[in-house]
Amino acid sequence: MTTQSAIRNLKSAIEGNRYGILAAVDRLAADCRNPQSAIRNLQSVRPVLQRRWRWAPAVAPLLGAVLLWAQKDIDVRAHLERAEQALQRSDPETARKELQEAVRLNPSSAEAHARLGMVYRKLGMPAQAAESLEQAVRLEPDPRVKVLLAFSYKEAGRHRDAIPLLEASFESEQKDSLRSVVGQHLVECHMAVGAPEQALAVVQKLRQIAPDDPGVLYLSSKVYLTLWNGAFQRMMAKAPDSYQVHLIRAEALEAQEKFAEAAGEYRQVLKIAPQTAGIHYRLARMILRGGASGDADQEALAEFRKELETNPGDVHAIAGVGEIHLGRNRLEEAARSFQQAVSLQPGYVPARVGLAKVLIAEKQWSNALEHLEAASKQAPDEEAVVYNLMIVYRGLGRSDDARRAFEQFQRLKEQSRPKVTPPQ
Amino acid sequence: MIRSARFLLLLTSAAWWPAGGQVEIHFVDVAPAAGLTVKTVFGGEKTKRYILETTGGGAAFFDYDNDGWLDIFLVNGSSFEGPFAATNHLYRNNRDRTFQDVTARAGLERSGWGQGVCTGDYDNDGDTDLFVTYWGQNVLHRNSGDGTFADVTQAAGLKGSRVRWGSGCAFVDYDRDGWLDLFVSNYIDFDPKAAPEPGSGPTCLFRGLAVNCGPRGLKGETNLLFHNQGGGRFEDVSERSGISRASGHYGLGVLVADFDSDGWPDIYVANDRSASLLFHNRRDGTFEEMGIFAGCAFDADGKATAGMGVAAGDFDRDGWLDILKTNFSDESASLYHNRRDGLFVDSALRWGLGRNRKWVGWGCGFADFDNDRWPDILIVNGHVFPELDDAGLGLSFRQPKVLYHNIGGERFEDVSATGGAVITSPASARGAAFGDFDNDGRLDVVINNMHDAPSLLHAQTRNQNHWLQVRLEGVQSNRSAVGARVACVTGKFRQIQEVRSGGSFFSQDDFRLHFGLGDARRVDVLEIRWPDGSVERVVDCDADQIISVKQGSGIVSRKP
Question: Which residues have CB under 8 Å from A317's CB, separation 6+?
Answer without folding.
Answer: A280, A281, A284, A304, A307, A308, A311
